[in-house]
Amino acid sequence: LRQSRHPVIERLMPRESFIPNDVTFAPAERVLLVTGPNMAGKSTILRQIGLCVILAQMGSFVPAEAAEIGVVDRLFTRVGASDNLARGQSTFMVEMAETSAILHNATARSLVLLDEIGRGTSTYDGVAIAWAVSEHLHDTIGCRTMFATHYHELMQLPEELAHARNLNVAVRETGNQVIFLHHLEAGGTDRSYGIHVAQLAGLPAQVVSRAREVLKRLEREHRVVAGTPGPEPDPSQLALFRDAARLHPVVTELKELDLDRMTPIEALNTLAALKRKSIP
Fold first, then answer.
1. Angle CA 62–180–185, to nearest 5
2. Contact, 79 vs 51, CB < 8 A?
């Protein structure tokens, strides 16, 4: 795709303000890993690629200066975050279920567009899942994939995967300000500029300032609280009150009761007897 656009978003923006982007999938570059800050336009690029492919396959106009698009047998997307309260599914569970459907049904002729897999759990778990999913798409399925992520650890994937490449959505820093260029370029980025986005959203100045302090400490020490962590509890040290309660004769007798065979009257009488025994 050369100078591709998102037709809906472009229509909603002032004239000539939408930034078009070039995207190329090739046999040697079939897994594209996209990093960049929030609000830079990663999700928009994913969506416009999907729209261009669908429009091309239905024989419609393609919003691009030029396009050479092969036929895909399926188009899979994992974009956005939502839960399913009616089924008792968290946002992360819904995300994993959708990812599972992709991994079980995609073929080498498919196009897969992924946005932020693994963000609903701990950082290490999320990175591990995102890494394993990327490897499976690259090694086992072999489909064309674009994966937008904030996990900068994934930028190491091209060192192991022959057909993976890093891209980033460009920004420029001017003093304390960040300018979003919304332009896709080669290479990864090691910053997400989340605090800058929080500042743009109107968080109180003292909160933003404190967030910068915490970020610096985390980057330097990987801890927020100063000093070294306290010692872990000694598993060989018995808990005084817990053990005392466990050895109390009333507790022992309660554990031995067969409640399924007791009548209501027997249960009341037993409870009264245990109460008398528990009084010192």
1. 60
2. no
Tokens of 84: 């399913």
pTM (2 d.p.)? 0.75
Residue 185 and residue 166: Cα distance in Å, rounded?
9
Query: What one-letter code names the amino acid at 18?
Result: F
Alpha-helical segments (H) within 118-193: 123-135, 157-160
Q: Please, which residues bridge with residue 77 across strands?
A: 113
How far, in Å, CA of 266 to CA of 244, rounded? 27
Per-residue pLDDT of the chain (280 residues; tens, 9 = 90+): 999 999 999 999 887 789 999 999 998 999 999 998 888 889 999 999 999 999 999 999 999 999 999 999 999 999 876 656 556 677 888 899 999 999 999 999 999 999 988 877 888 899 999 999 999 999 999 999 999 998 889 999 999 999 999 999 998 887 777 888 999 999 988 777 888 888 888 999 999 999 989 988 888 876 667 666 666 655 555 555 555 445 577 777 878 887 777 787 888 888 888 888 877 6
Burial of 225 (0-12, 13-18, 19+ CB in 10 A): exposed
Residue 141 CA to residue 134 CA, distance in Å, equals 10
DSSP 8-state symbol, 145? E
115 backbone dihedrals φ, ψ, rounded to 5°: -125, 105
- Cα distances (angstroms) measured from residue 46 to each of 34, 42, 62, 151, 271: 10, 6, 15, 17, 66
Residues in contact with 30: Cβ distance below 8 Å, sequence separation at least 6, in sequence order: 138, 142, 143, 144, 145, 163
Domains of the chain plus CATH, in order, are 7-192 (3.40.50.300), 193-225 (no CATH)
